[in-house]
Amino acid sequence: MSLRPERRALVVGVRPDKREEYLALHRAVWPSVERKLSECNVRNYSIFIVEDILFAYYEYTGEDHEADMRRIAEDPATQQWWTHTDPCQVRIAEERVPGALWQPIDEVWHLA
To answer: Among the options 26, 65, 84, 110, which is catalytic?
Structure first.
């Protein structure tokens, strides 16, 4: 386990006609999805919304972010969850991660 968590941030748009559906889904995130995130060293995960922009922040406490992200992506419950959430989203940032809706954004400043 990492001594110091890695801070990660991502951004995506929410389709205006799917906004309420997306918010409703996140009022009751499936426990199996939350469990898999925790198993894969994701902590302090938050999603914020302003207008039609979603901003996600989490801390990664493991040693191999890519491997843990693959484990999340291979999880059947998470894959099913994404069949509900992905149609609500639209990429709004430069495609830095090929094919991903959520795109990473760079940290500019941090107060520890």
So the answer is: 26
pTM of the entire predicted model: 0.92
Is there a contact between 45 and 68 (Cβ–Cβ < 8 Å)?
Answer: no
As given in the structure block, the two tokens for residue 104 are 């990473």
Per-residue model confidence as pLDDT tens digits over 22-54: 999 999 999 999 999 999 999 999 999 999 999
The count of C-alpha atoms lying within 13 angstroms of the C-alpha of 77, restricted to the half-sphere facing its C-beta, is 9
CB 5 within 8 A of CB 43: yes
Q: Does residue 65 carry a catalytic annotation?
A: no
Cα–Cα dist 63/79, whole Å: 23
- State how far the Cα of 55 lies from the Cα of 59, in Å rounded to an integer: 14
